[in-house]
């Protein structure tokens, strides 16, 4: 987008439809879902993309704007798009997870996503939310402050969007299909990417040319706001820039206290804005994107490489290198998480729920179930409180709104059904149950969820994402959560506000949120492999009083199953 036709259309909309007193605009985008050749990604295969680009278009809007994205599906695959982190107040129909808030947009169909950006500013991402199509269907969302409202940090001289991805040489849909058939873990990816550019992958043209690698141009002495998105499918990532420090000022479209670090850590689905000042000797500096994995699970360990280039330097200057953190650098991830605090200023207060109506303990992990047709007679599964979630064939939100019976049950367990030493020796029985179970919340009730990692098969870090809300990360720790002791150290003043948070390996994280958004809201691991295996559930939030506290009626073009 961003062409002149769009700009004049936008101007028309602002001038004609919106009174001058209302400082919000309508932002219109068209997403054509098409099949695209990926020569730039070193593969002759075609992939599903938006408008022929990977990453797809960046959405630009201001806080308060109404965003309209018309999605036309021109490929044989079913598709949906999720606006990851957008609150979707009363507009759950536009949230996007397939069979949760909508049926897929089928081949030849189109759907208008219609939502307003309320109370959020910063960077988010959008991505496909069906099967593994988000491997190539993703992009950034830039939410600028309202017109005339400054950033709560010095105005940067420039802004750059940096979207990290994960790339398979093979067709990702055949990768997930093979895993589902065999019951074995899916093949790992072949590289990580920076704005679509891979690292040094065998068989790819050298990345050490301006054409093939990602390049971030800066001018000496200037400060830039980097809008960094982790759009990877299964990998938590570190980002480092040789010789430069980064100052985090925002996470998941909520401002933070400035936090200066040499390493950014992002789970898939997480986003962050960080300031970078080009204050080193003019030159070329490596940008390195490498994975984090502190347990025995196999992971793509190919580092994606790009360059920060000062203006005016020789094109073939040798780069300053940076050492990537060790792949198992748990301490780096813990220090990064501990460094983040909500800004909590008078203009941007942290509305942390001080009391809790629903206190939930969710044990999250993997398991093994019988599967007569699978390679070993078993299949790997994943679960929350021993429930491997099964997606229905009708969207949960439709079932809820139209009171359709038999689609889901509302008995999702508030606690693990049989408590055990979650991070100790795993129980002998690795089986789970399954079902389409939801947990019901009244409008405006407050919720605390302690996400407890387990050591079933192997303990692992899980980036957990909640749709429809931001939550406050009030506490975290290693081992088992201690209900008697741990809450006394909770931060209820300025905890970081996010929509996705990594639960440490063999540890726990406590989050709080207020259920002030009616609808059906997905909670799941943002490692797509774990979501596929069943590490997911949904909250149903009832309507409150009157239309302002009730979900809007479904749009007329809502896809049907
Ligand atoms: C895309 O790749 C296929 C081979 O995989 C080739 O036949 C086709 O011509 C390519 N299309 C474009 C537009 O490059
Ligand atoms: C978008 O949804 C709002 C309700 O939230 C509605 O008033 C408006 O007409 C919709 N816009 C379009 C273009 O359908
Ligand atoms: C997964 O990897 C195995 C082993 O390298 C390979 O034989 C298989 O073809 C791969 N599967 C897909 C779908 O690419
Ligand atoms: C990366 O992983 C592969 C196996 O997947 C292994 O052979 C290789 O040694 C690893 N490389 C590094 C740098 O850890
Ligand atoms: C990380 O892995 C290396 C190599 O396997 C090992 O020597 C080191 O102890 C590990 N570090 C941590 C913190 O687990
Ligand atoms: C499944 O079978 C394969 C090959 O027979 C074997 O290597 C693997 O360890 C088995 N995995 C499990 C989880 O039993
Ligand atoms: C749980 O297991 C861990 C690791 O084996 C052990 O250190 C801890 O004492 C156990 N906790 C309880 C309550 O048994
Ligand atoms: C989970 O459910 C299965 C099937 O009912 C049961 O066999 C297993 O013991 C349960 N595991 C846990 C940890 O509750
Ligand atoms: C759910 O569990 C039942 C009973 O064990 C089993 O028959 C069914 O295949 C499972 N469904 C899925 C989708 O795993
Ligand atoms: C939600 O509850 C809080 C705390 O009781 C209250 O201040 C707020 O007004 C309520 N919001 C709505 C929309 O009812
Ligand atoms: C609903 O919200 C609008 C806009 O905030 C307000 O003008 C209106 O009075 C509210 N209506 C009710 C019934 O609360
Ligand atoms: C697309 O979705 C529809 C509705 O759920 C389903 O019936 C159909 O099988 C799906 N098609 C594909 C190609 O997955
Ligand atoms: Cu996970």
Automatic annotation (TrEMBL):
It is an enzyme of class 1 (oxidoreductase). Residues 1-24 form the signal peptide. The keyword S-adenosyl-L-methionine does not apply. Its EC number is 1.10.3.2. This is Laccase. Binds 4 Cu cations per monomer. Residues 33-147, 160-312, 411-544 form the Plastocyanin-like domain.
């Amino acid at each position: 987008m961003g062409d002149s036709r769009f700009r004049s259309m936008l101007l028309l909309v602002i001038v004609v439809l919106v009174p001058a007193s209302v400082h919000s605009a309508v932002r219109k985008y068209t997403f054509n879902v098409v099949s695209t050749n990926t020569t730039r990604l070193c593969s002759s295969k075609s992939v599903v993309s938006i408008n022929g680009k990977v990453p797809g278009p960046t959405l630009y809007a201001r806080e308060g704007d109404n965003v309209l994205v018309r999605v036309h599906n021109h490929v044989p695959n079913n598709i949906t798009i999720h606006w990851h982190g957008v609150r979707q107040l009363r507009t759950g129909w536009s949230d996007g997870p397939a069979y949760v808030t909508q049926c897929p947009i089928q081949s030849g169909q189109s759907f208008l996503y219609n939502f307003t950006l309320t109370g959020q500013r910063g960077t988010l991402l959008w991505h496909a939310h069906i099967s593994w199509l988000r491997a190539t269907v993703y992009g950034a969302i830039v939410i600028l402050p309202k017109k005339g409202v400054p950033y709560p940090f010095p105005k940067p001289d420039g802004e750059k969007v940096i979207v990290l991805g994960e790339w398979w040489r093979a067709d990702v849909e055949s990768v997930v299909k093979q895993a589902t058939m065999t019951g074995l873990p899916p093949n790992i990816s072949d590289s990580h990417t920076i704005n679509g550019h891979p690292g040094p992958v065998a068989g790819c043209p050298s990345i050490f040319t301006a054409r093939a690698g990602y390049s971030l141009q800066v001018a000496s002495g200037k400060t830039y706001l980097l809008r960094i998105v982790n759009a990877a499918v299964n990998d938590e990532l570190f980002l480092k820039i040789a010789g430069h420090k980064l100052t985090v000022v925002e996470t998941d479209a909520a401002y933070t206290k400035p936090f200066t670090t040499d390493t950014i850590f992002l789970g898939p689905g997480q986003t962050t804005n960080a300031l970078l000042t080009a204050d080193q000797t003019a030159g070329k500096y490596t940008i390195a994107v490498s994975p984090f994995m502190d347990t025995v699970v196999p992971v793509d360990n190919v580092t994606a490489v790009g360059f920060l280039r000062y203006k005016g330097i020789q094109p073939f200057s040798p780069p300053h290198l940076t050492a990537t953190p060790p792949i198992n650098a748990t301490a780096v991830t813990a220090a990064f998480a501990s460094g983040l605090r909500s800004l909590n200023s008078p203009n941007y207060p942290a509305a942390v729920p001080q009391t809790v109506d629903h206190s939930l303990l969710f044990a999250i992990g993997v398991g093994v179930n019988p599967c007569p047709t699978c390679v070993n007679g078993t299949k790997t599964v994943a679960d929350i409180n021993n429930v491997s979630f099964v997606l229905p064939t009708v969207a949960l939100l439709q079932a809820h709104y139209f009171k359709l019976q038999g689609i889901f049950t509302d008995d999702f367990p508030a606690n693990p059904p049989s408590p055990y030493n979650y991070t100790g020796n795993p129980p002998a029985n690795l089986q789970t149950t399954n079902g389409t179970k939801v947990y019901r919340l009244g409008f405006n009730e407050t919720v605390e969820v302690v996400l407890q990692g387990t050591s079933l098969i192997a303990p692992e870090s899980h980036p957990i994402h909640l749709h429809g809300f931001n939550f406050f990360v009030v506490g975290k720790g290693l081992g088992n959560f201690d209900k008697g002791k741990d809450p006394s150290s909770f931060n209820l003043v300025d905890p970081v506000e996010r929509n996705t948070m990594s639960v440490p390996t063999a540890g726990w994280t406590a989050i709080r949120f207020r259920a002030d958004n009616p609808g059906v809201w997905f909670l799941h691991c943002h490692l797509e492999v774990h979501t596929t295996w069943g590490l997911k559930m949904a909250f149903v939030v009832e309507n409150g009083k009157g239309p302002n506290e009730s979900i809007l009626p479904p749009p007329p073009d809502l896809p049907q199953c």
